[in-house]
Amino acid sequence: MLIYKGEDGELYRNDRYNSIEMHFYKKPGYDVLDSIKILGWKWQNNSGCWYNRNNEENLTLAKKLLGESVDDNKRVREIKTSEVNSYVVDSNRRLVRLGSKDFLVRRNMNYCLITGHNVQDVDAILEVVDRVGTKRLIRIPVTWCETCHSYYIFEQDYLDLREYGIPVCCVCKDS
Questions:
Q1: Distance between alpha carbon 88 and the CA centroid of its chain, in Å?
Q2: Lowest-confidence range among 27-31, 41-45, 101-105?
Q3: How far is 32 from 110, CA to CA, in rounded Å?
Q4: Is 120 in contact with 64 (CB distance < 8 Å)?
Q5: What span, in angstroms and rounded, lies between the C-alpha atoms of 74 and 52?
Q6: 54 has which bridge partners?
Q7: How many helices and strands in the chain, by DSSP H and E?
Q8: pLDDT of residue 93
Q9: Where are the beta strands (DSSP E) in the chain?
Q10: Distance CA 60, CA 13 (A)
Q11: What value, to the nearest 5°, has the Cα angle with vertex 21 and ends 158 and 7?
Q12: How far apart are CA 102 and CA 109, in angstroms?
């Protein structure tokens, strides 16, 4: 039974085996595959999927790996200044404003997930400067790692952000 459809694949519940199955649309990168294996997911060759026990921890991880729900709004989008104070986020997320002194790290979050860091998905609002010098406010999903004391952005979200302009906050790439 289909329980989640993301940008990178679908998640199914298998009641017969009390398991969940991740079906990627295309083969994931080696960093994702290594993470999946370390976290106990097994490959089912006949079904062409990764499976694990059906529990909240595995569901959460699978949804992160499969990407934002295709039913959700665009992940990176411009907002008006007047919308900032009334901006509503999901009750499970918090809203942060990133300024010129904040750092945003372009990195795959698998390291923090594997090592058990305390991570939280948040919505960030930051300024970008477009090609003609106009400042624009952009809403982006980021991850806050309490252990590393850093905000992280997925590479695709960063590329989407750059379509709006150059971020005013400091952005670095972690290898």
A1: 19
A2: 27-31
A3: 7
A4: no
A5: 29
A6: none
A7: 4, 13
A8: 66
A9: 2-5, 9-14, 19-24, 42-44, 49-53, 77-79, 94-98, 103-106, 119-129, 135-145, 150-153, 166-167, 170-173
A10: 13
A11: 25
A12: 18
Q: Can you tell me whether residue 31 is helix, strand or coil?
A: helix
The tokens for 146 are: 């309490």
Dihedral of CA atoms 110, 106, 97, 157 in degrees, nearest 10, equals: -90
| β-strand partners of 151 | 104, 144
Buried b vs exposed e over 100-119: b needs ≥16 C-beta within 10 Å? Answer: eebebbbbebbebbeeeeeb
**How far is Cα 79 from Cα 137, in angstroms, rounded to an integer?**
6
Report pTM: 0.55
117: tokens are 């860091």
Partnered with residue 95 across adjacent β-strands are 123
Q: Which residues pair with 101 in a beta bridge?
A: none
SS3 at position 27: coil
List all residues 6 or more positions away from 7 whose beta carbon is below 8 Å from its beta carbon: 66, 67, 68, 70
Tell me if 12 sits within 8 A of 21, measured CB to CB: yes
pLDDT of residue 168: 93
Take residue 159 and report the two structure tokens written for it.
């590329």
